[in-house]
Amino acid sequence: MKVAALTRERLLRGWEEGLGRGRVARAVALAAAAGGHSFAEACDLPLGARDALLVGLRDACVRGDVQALADCPACGEELDVAVPLSDLDRRGEAVPGEVAVGGRRVGFRALTSRDVLAAEAAGPTRAAARRCLVGRCVLAVDGEAVEGEAVDALDDEVLDAVAAALPAVDPGADIRLDLTCALCGHGWAAPFDVAAHLWADVDACARGLLGEVHALARAYGWREEEVLALSAARRRFYLEAVGA
């Protein structure tokens, strides 16, 4: 997925749409801004495609490594990790998959944000959320479409097999970083949540941009759209001129 030619106005709309929302809906709002999609369209993107848009958006806003923390599972040491953005850019088109379970052929698709949001609302238990999440991905059993009550009737053996196979059909949705503890030398593959980590950087970028709008609007009486239309170099010049 490519980031559309990103305007500052669209970045701010995506940021504003994400404010006050949960982690998944925030990610959808930013992906919609990055890809030029509606919120509903971005909800239906495979998670890997959504996260590729978020990585591209972050690159357009903030250059350099992503800063993260990780706890060593062996000794508990907290590590400061600098993650190159290239390590997160796992592009690749999601494809349907099929697994064999107890003599049955089970077809399924990659997860989307809409699936995750539905699972969050499915009930108070992790088991209910997992059944909802994985069940929504099942397309067919032995060539027969599965929906409605048929999804509810899927047994745990089917759901477990589909859950185990999901990373293979959308590798970009399951990013893991190879880390080594500087204290004890333990190495492990740590999962990395693109949506959770990149929101903070985009949030800081948007707030900084609005701060520039505020300073120049006060100094010159310009409207927001006039300030945003200026290049970054021109905004810096005017900000320095007014001592902001």
Keywords:
244 residues; alpha+beta; two-stranded antiparallel sheet; 8 strands; 51% helix; 16% strand
Describe the 3D structure.
The protein has helices spanning 8-18, 23-35, 39-43, 47-61, 113-120, 126-137, 149-152, 156-169, 194-220, 224-229, 232-241; strands at 66-71, 78-83, 97-101, 104-108, 138-141, 144-145, 176-180, 187-191. A four-stranded antiparallel β-sheet has the order 3-4-5-6. A two-stranded antiparallel sheet has the order 1-2. Strands 7-8 form a two-stranded antiparallel ribbon. Helix 1 runs antiparallel to helix 2, helix 2 packs across helix 4 (47-61) and helix 4 runs parallel beside helix 9 (194-220). It is globular and about 75 Å long. With 244 residues, it is of the alpha+beta class.
Helical fraction:
40-55%
Largest sheet: 4 strands, antiparallel
Mean pLDDT value: 90
Shape: globular
Question: Strand pairing plus helix content: what structural class?
Answer: alpha+beta
Strand content: 15-25%
Q: Helix and strand string, N-terminal first?
A: HHHHEEEEHHEEHHEEHHH
Separation of termini? Answer: 38 Å
Query: Unreliable stretches, pLDDT < 50, 5 or more residues?
Result: none
Query: What's the total number of strands?
Result: 8
Integer-rounded radius of gyration: 22 Å
